Amino acid sequence: MDHIAFGDTPVSRCRYYRLVCDLPAIVDPPQLGRIIVKAGIVWAVMMPTDLGHAVRREMQRRQQDTGPIMSHPRSSRWSYLVRPDLPNDDSLFAEMFRLNVSIVRAGGAIALPSPTDRCPQFRRWIEPPRCAFRPSGLVVIASVRATAQVRER
């Protein structure tokens, strides 16, 4: 996906996201070619890039598939696309807030890489989606916690 094929357009990329990756993507607004997913069947766990790297290493160490990961170079953040299985728990959100981690839940908008994102400071895939698999949000949060505990020592 990082190598934009001839004819790759926001509409064709959306079609790929929908048909292959089961992501309900839309082009919004059409004149800009931005691709978004309304959080519902997919959520995102967003964190600083350095924490994102550490979480990825932790998940790989545990032999867990990371699923799709996006980079947002302008804001120095990574987003893990996850299944929507995190509890609606204020203590979880407070804990993640202290670690500078946010959760995009039902109703939020998740912007995905688009072929119109020509500037390297826009979104790009670290691990592109290749199918409908997304890890459990609980698994990603467990890796965030494990990584944070190691850093505190």
Major sheet summary line: 5 strands, antiparallel
The percent of residues in helical segments reads 25-40%
Taken as a percent bin, the fraction of beta residues is 15-25%
Contiguous uncertain segments of 5+ residues: 2-6
Give the SSE order as H and E letters.
HEEEHEEHEEEH
* Arithmetic mean pLDDT: 92
Total beta strand runs: 8
Strand order of the largest sheet: 6-3-5-4-8
Describe the secondary structure blueprint for this structure.
Layout: H1 10-19, E1 25-27, E2 35-38, E3 43-48, H2 49-61, E4 69-72, E5 77-82, H3 90-98, E6 102-104, E7 109-112, E8 124-127, H4 137-152
Antiparallel strand pairs: 1-2, 2-7, 3-5, 3-6, 4-5, 4-8
Looking at this protein, list some descriptive labels.
alpha+beta, five-stranded antiparallel sheet, three-stranded antiparallel sheet, 31% helix, globular
What can be said about this structure in brief?
About 30% of the residues lie in helices and about 20% in strands. It has a 5-stranded antiparallel β-sheet with strand order 6-3-5-4-8. It has a 3-stranded antiparallel β-sheet with strand order 1-2-7. Residues about 1-5 have low confidence and may be disordered.
How would you characterize the overall build of this protein?
The chain is α+β, with helices and mostly antiparallel strands. It has one domain. It has four helices and eight strands; from the N terminus they run H-E-E-E-H-E-E-H-E-E-E-H. The protein has helices at 10-19, 49-61, 90-98, 137-152, and strands at 25-27, 35-38, 43-48, 69-72, 77-82, 102-104, 109-112, 124-127. The strands form two sheets. A five-stranded antiparallel sheet has the order 6-3-5-4-8. A three-stranded antiparallel sheet has the order 1-2-7. The radius of gyration is 15 Å and the shape is globular. The relative contact order is 0.24. Mean pLDDT is 92; it is low at 2-6.
